[in-house]
Specification:
This protein is an alpha/beta fold. Helices cover about 35% and strands about 20% of the residues. α1 packs antiparallel against α2.
Length: about 290
């Protein structure tokens, strides 16, 4: 059988995977529906393997990269999960304090991909902290399916408190300038939006395809850079109302909708990845942070 390519997979399969990844359909129903697309030489197994994340071959910055000091730390989150584990990374060549970035995972805990993104942020000239909201339940369990099941057991507002506590930890870290922003993906995009609402001195917020707040938008003080995939109808349907509120209250925001990009387009471990959109969005993100956290 020939090697599958992104173009071999119908958009409906990506939409179905999005439903499964966000707990809107069970695994059994997901596989049943996936079988409808097992035609023309495609099998359920081959499609499932193709659309599942690859954490072995796709990691960009290795754990032992010699340009980084990267280690797991713990910090206190009294309003959230108690004690939270996170990956703290910074360039080894840094001689002065650095601005900070909180990196917020998707709805499955701190998996290898988000650890990688945390290291990428550090290599760009920041001190980054990528917390694991699954810490109170034992941490990321090793697979995304198990991670999603665990994260469903936690209250999302308590998890928000865990990332607000991460902000406080990083802001007061001796290697940080005290200027801290946040970037998050999917669930982490919602966290990034909510931190802009809840943290009055947040330096900047960059939600990637994140759910939007519907209340207290007038409280936002941080500049926002928002990234959306054109094909991500589920998340995008809330954007017009959010944008209208941001305009109403005169907030500083910039939004980009990336043509033909799916939800999760920045995640390079799955075929939803769109290289052109992801690289441009990340470049814009780093420039944005360097401007607003200077």
């Amino acid at each position: 059988m020939k090697k599958l390519k992104k173009e071999d997979i119908k958009q409906e399969v990506f939409d179905l995977y999005d439903d499964y990844a966000h707990n809107r359909v069970s695994r059994r129903l997901f596989l049943d529906k996936l079988s409808a697309y097992a035609v023309g030489g495609l099998t359920v197994g081959s499609m499932l393997s193709f659309i599942s994340p690859d954490y072995v071959k796709k990691i960009q910055i290795k754990q032992d990269d010699s340009n980084l000091k990267s280690e797991f730390i713990t910090y206190n989150s009294p309003k959230g999960g108690g004690v939270i584990k996170g990956l703290l990374s910074k360039p080894v060549a840094a001689k002065e304090k650095l601005p900070g970035i909180i990196v917020v995972h998707e709805n499955r805990g701190l998996n290898p991909h988000i650890e990688d993104v945390g290291r990428r942020a550090a290599l760009a000239g920041f001190i980054s902290l990528a917390p694991d909201a699954l810490t109170p339940l034992g941490g990321y369990p090793g697979t995304d399916d198990e991670g999603r099941e665990l994260q469903r057991k936690r209250d999302k507002d308590e998890m928000l408190q865990d990332f607000i506590a991460a902000y406080s930890y990083l802001k007061n870290h001796p290697d940080c300038t005290g200027k801290v922003g946040v970037v998050g993906f999917c669930f982490g995009g919602w966290i990034s939006n909510m931190m802009a609402v809840e943290v009055s001195n947040l330096g900047a917020s960059v939600p990637f395809y994140g759910g939007q707040p519907t209340e207290n938008i007038e409280k936002i003080k941080a500049p926002l850079l928002l990234h959306f995939g054109e094909l991500d109808k589920r998340v995008n349907e809330g954007w017009p109302d959010y944008e209208a509120a941001l305009k109403k209250y005169g907030k500083d925001y910039t939004a980009y909708i990336y043509k033909n990009a799916n939800h999760g387009f920045h995640n390079d471990t799955t075929p939803r990845y769109d290289r052109e959109a992801a690289e441009l969005a990340w470049q814009r993100t780093i420039v944005f942070f360097k401007k607003h956290l200077a």
